[in-house]
Design goal:
By secondary structure, the protein is mainly alpha-helical. Helices cover 71% and strands 7% of the residues. The chain has six helices and three strands, in the order H-H-E-H-H-E-E-H-H. Residues 1-132 form the HTH marR-type domain.
């Protein structure tokens, strides 16, 4: 479908701008939110797990986690292997997560206004499939 990527990228940029504005009162950006989101939904996590999930270099995740540690939203928790840094949410991180999650849900509901449930569900189910296809395509290039 010609023009799909252009439409997606124009939507993505606008959405990231909206999300950054929504989270600015908490001194968060969307990239920092992604770390909070991952740890909240997956439990205490290593930096490698987070970087692998988002397909981002580990030093990038390390900087994000350090920033969140400085903000007292995540903390290192004891793990089995002392060489691995395992991160969990603090009470403040949990509180900020819940407040932002509510605002994000409100934003999601408002931007989906006027779109049928059927179309919303189709989009919700299609986007992960596109991601999987991109990852598969990247894997085939390495062979």
């Amino acid at each position: 479908m010609e023009g799909f990527f252009q439409r997606y990228l124009s939507l993505y940029r606008k959405l990231i701008t909206e999300l950054n504005a929504l989270m600015s009162p908490y001194e968060l950006s969307y990239s920092l939110w992604l770390v909070l989101y991952y740890v909240k939904n997956n439990g205490p996590s290593t930096l490698v797990e987070i970087s692998n999930y988002y397909q981002v270099e580990k030093p990038t995740i390390t900087r994000r986690v350090q920033r969140l540690e400085d903000m007292k939203m995540v903390e290192q928790i004891p793990g089995k292997d002392k060489r691995e840094k395992v991160m969990g949410l603090t009470a403040l991180g949990e509180e900020v997560y819940q407040e932002c999650r509510k605002k994000i849900t409100d934003l999601e509901n408002s931007i989906m206004e006027g779109i049928s449930e059927k179309d919303q569900l189709a989009t919700f189910q299609t986007l992960p499939k596109i991601r999987e296809n991109i990852i598969k395509s990247e894997g085939n290039k390495c062979e």
